[in-house]
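User: Quick sanity check before I run a bigger batch. Here is a single chain. Can you write out its predicted 3D structure?
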Amino acid sequence: MNMKFFSVGKYFAKLNLLLLFLTQSCNYVQKNPHFSHIENYPQAISIKTIELVKFELEAIESSYIGELFINNEKIGFIDQKFCWVFFFDKDGQFLTRHLGQGRGPSEIPTGIIDGHSCLNDGSYFFVGSANDCYIFDENFQIINSFIIDKTAEKKSKNFEQPWIYTLCYENLIMKNYDNYLYYNIFSEYEDLNFIDSPIDYFKNVFIISKLNLTTGKVEQILGNYPDIYVNDKSLKQLSLVNFDIDSKGNFYLSFELIL
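Assistant: Done. Predicted structure follows.
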């Protein structure tokens, strides 16, 4: 059976960034000094319509549990369960398959691929369920691996401590800028989660980790929720955060169902 997906024509590779612009809250003022935001920044969206076009990928042997991505004008598919990375041309024809579970120089030993990023130097980043990270070059030869180091000693729990946060597996986004990987995070610790104490959580929580790709160390935690999450308790079930980074290092954040 062929794999069937939908594209948005020439805008497909930039769909995530476009959606962030469309859903950005224009009155949001960032409280964290590491980010800044211009209040009521004028929108400059020139795309009026998006045409969805169906396309098919050539049939492959796969678990079909995974994610699509675009890189170097190729369509990629990551089989998260079998840890394979497939590439197809723009017409959906199969090109190559890489990785797979194992401990060889071109294999990955994690049980499942939970997140990934195409790095700016042409290499590929993958993370597993145990915070185990692997970087492969453009030919899928291993060049670095590490466990995410959340730096601080486990002292009393508070929102300033990187170790209380975990990867947002439900909607994991990983973006590269310079020698850092940024990914969205949340806390599920007792009394430090959005279910048990939503007002305190949304007022003080951080939402993005800054990971050094050489050392594996989380150097900063960044970003906050907008005030509407503190003022409206009904939003606590709609806590997903999306973000992107442009070529100048500017962050674009959107928050679930805030227009």
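The chain has three helices and 17 strands.

User: Great, the batch can go ahead then.
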